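Fold this: Protein Sur-8 homolog
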Amino acid sequence: MLINFNRSIISFNNYKIMKKQSKTTPIPSARHGSGSSVGEHHRMAPSSLPSDSSFLVSQQPQQSISATLSPSSPESEGQSGSLPGIAGTSSMTTTNSSFLSDEPIPPPSPFDQPSTSRDFSFKDKKSSISSSSDFGNKPKQVMIHSPGQTKPKPATTRKKASIQSGLDVDKKIQKCKEEGCKSFDLTKSNLSSLPISIKDLTQLVECYLYQNKLITLPNEIGCLINLEKLAVNENSLSSLPSSLSNLKNLKVLDLRHNKLNEIPEVVYRLTSLTTLLLRFNRIKTVNEEISNLTNLTMLSLRENKIKELPGGIGNLIQLVTLDVSNNHIEHLPPEIGNCIQLTTLDVHHNELVDIPSSIKNLTNLTRLGLRYNRLISVPRSLSNCVRLTEFNVENNSLSQLPEGLLSSLSNLNTLTLSRNEFVSYPVGGPSQFCTVHSINMEHNKITKIPFGIFSRANNLTKLNMVDNQLTSLPLDIGTWINLVELNLGTNQLPKIPEDIEHLENLEVLIISNNNLKRLPSTIGRLRKLRILELEENRLESLPNEIG
């Protein structure tokens, strides 16, 4: 166990003494709590710790001390997501994801193309002749250049490759027709246009054209009358042909990552659609005709330039997932309350100033994303959404929640109130945290944690209070026995209570950037502690028991 103290290593108890000239690798500061926005500082997760059992304490010139404890065995975890309604897709929160996980069709080899022109290259100022190697029965290619000649442009293969690619597509279409294929995949085929022979594939049910260079689709696409899934995401489409309205059976339309300035009129006539993906375009408006798509269960308009949603959205009574995040929406229409099947409503990163009271009708909501808006209040009627498991209002202008709101949300698992204007805990008493596993109150103006506020929080494992104005901790801190992570960094705490020893499940303790002069010796009894951050305090020494 090594302790670096003023560039010397001091020995006491089981600590070794030795001089060390090299600089200690700095440990990340706790002043920046974990946040949801891109580019913000994130707290080091326990799973990112090294697998050795070293314990390092480094003191800065300002006499700050930091410590890191590593677990004896590494941890690993994984996560995967899927897009509802589309087999093999990635989660909606994942950008640049392909529609399906099919392998791309390899481009044709240049060696499969016969040589039709003479190649030229410079060797030196003298005349030179060189021959290329043979590949199969291909003739030799002779490169000739005479002194004084202007270097001719080499024969380009781009046009030949394009022609060859077109021929290959035609062959694939013909083969698909002959075999009666139900699914056709031209993913990553470097296509700039689709041949009109596509009209012959009337038996198709699924067609995948994503990650090409398509700027338009041929009218003949309307001949695929049995088509149910069409993926043309990650192209350069700015419009769609009107013949698309012939696809009466189309259920899934993926138009993500294109160049659409508006939702093409033909889309509003595809009344069988259940999944419509339009995120990452340039769409500014959504027409009232959206009300025609009454079979939609998923609608993604994320990452566009939309300022408002029409009242017609209320006609989508089968809608389960609505994602309009990362736009410029100021108000949600009251008709949103008609979408009673909604389980996920994402409107984060907009300019919302209010939430309609009709949200009380969305009793099936399990996730409501409201972070990064301009809300100064949330309606009391939100208490009707009793199935909510996640409530996130990070980075708004909230100073309080309606009394009893959190107590009503009896299935709440994650509560994020960070980066707001709270000066105290939400009104409602201990009952409001009975089911909560994680509370994030970082970057507010809270001066104290009320005594007994977590007396019924038997499931609470993570508490983040970084960057508030805490001057003391409640006397019942020893009852928070299920806490695994406790972040109290960047406050004004002068001391840590002795009974912190009762937090026997604690693995992460961050108390950096406070006014601490000493640590209680009982902190050494936290046997599961893996991360201890102490930098930017006034500590002069560490208790022997900390080892």
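The CA atoms of residues 49 and 498 lie 27 Å apart. The domain at 9-73+422-547 is CATH 3.80.10.10 (Leucine-rich repeat, LRR (right-handed beta-alpha superhelix)).
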